[in-house]
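Subject: Transmembrane 9 superfamily member structure
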Amino acid sequence: MGDRFENSAYRFKMYTNESEVLMCRTDPLSADNFKILKKRIDEMYQVNLVLDNLPAIRYTKKDGYFLRWTGYPVGIRVQDFYYVFNHLKFTVLVHKYEETNVAHVMRTGDGAEVIPTVQDGESGKPGYMVVGFEVVPCSINHNADSVKIAKMYDKYPSKIQCDPTTVAMHIKEHEPIVFTYEVTFEESDIKWPSRWDAYLKMQGSKVHWFSILNSLMIITFLAGIVLVIFLRTVRRDLTRYEELDREAQAQMNEELSGWKLVVGDVFRAPSNPALLCVMVGDGVQILGMAIVTILFAALGFMSPASHGTLITGMLFFYMVLGIAAGYVAVRLWRTIGCGDHKGWVSVAWKAACFFPGIAFLTLTVLNFLLWGSHSTAAIPFSLFVILLLLWFCISVPLTLVGGYIGAKAPHIEYPVRTNHIPREIPAQKYPSWFLVLCAGTLPFGTLFIELFYIMSSLWMGRVYYVFGFLFVVMILLVVVCAEVSLVLTYMHLCVEDWKWWWQSFFASGSVAIYIFLYSVNYLIFNLRSLGGPVSATLYLGYSLLMVLAIMISTGTVGFLSSFWFVHYLFSSVKLD
């Protein structure tokens, strides 16, 4: 949408209809300008206009349905000819003030400051509020010679008939283009608080309900498996175990099979424990940020009328939740080290710099590409400095504070002792990486429908505002990740594979692989018009960053649920 606005030359007078208004006559198109204009039309560049904080909305009809778009294309290519949309037909929907004597309006942050207050002596005239802004782009073959001496806002000498179904203004080198517009004001029953409804009208709500139903079916299926594990297998085993006397228990120990055999190894420290602690800490931070931001958006605190509130909210919650990242990372580090304080500062520092460092590096590389392409989408240098200051002056100190609290908190004590010599893991029927990869399909199944809408919002410029559905899908995703990881951990323990730490993390985190493959599929089939390698690199760079955040957060959910399950399972076993 672009959050940096420029004033355009279009001029409207409230409740004054105008037609055939001359905007300008360009200089004859040079070879370079002609080439650029053709390129922009090929790349499907959009013009986004805003009136009183409302984006221009365009309606198109397809298969009997009306589709809503924000903005309009620069032009269109028909066979080998390029046509530019040089006439705009604006419709401004206005609502009359309930009272003619409006003294002041309560500020809502949604353009309230531009509502005119009635001055003395004007109290008889009705006041109007803008409640809708529609545009119909047309391609009209204007006679450039007829407006050679005309000025801006003069009337075009002949009648203009705007028909969006036909195109006529074929662009040619060394020939000028004439731009015109017309504006019609219509009174509407839409009231000021409801003026965003046209943009946020939920399309395809049945599809969202289907998505939730689909997720619930997966959850119920997995919940059934978890229930079977808890009630039948674990409970039956534990009951039998507790009913035996010591001699029988000793005899049974020799005949044990499955998860009970790995009792002396199940809490053995994993490989790269510091990295695991850091990723789990960052996962808690990212997941917390996502849930809180989406909840606030679902409750209506982050209106699209206030540009940039969603990104600002995400950054704010991410920084504040640095405390949670530091606390979880350090407490887990102390748990793995059996209460040892050593190295907690290093872990807290790594948690503060791991994900933000990767994100900052990715954004810097992508920004250099944008600067090299002279793109206005490049992040200004001043904003880079602000982001760095936010990171090192707020996020890092808060993460270290969280780490300090985690270092002071008691570590989680293991219910069983770990043997000095690790037990050999028997040969497995299926490799663990294969099971881990398969596990990712279930969480992906809960969110792939919602993913299409999110992708369309990010890359197609469509307004996304079904945050209520997104919040429900997010909670269902967390539940599915927890259940998938728990079931897979139990399966690994049953075949005497005690290396469950990283496996539980990647069992639910592997959903990120499928999301990335979906992103590539979306690039190939939905963004075919994407121009050049720079655009594709930007898309894949941002997608990789998003996928990494999803992997860390979903992996964290899986790991924490498995850790609780393993702790609960072995704390129920009475062993000498």
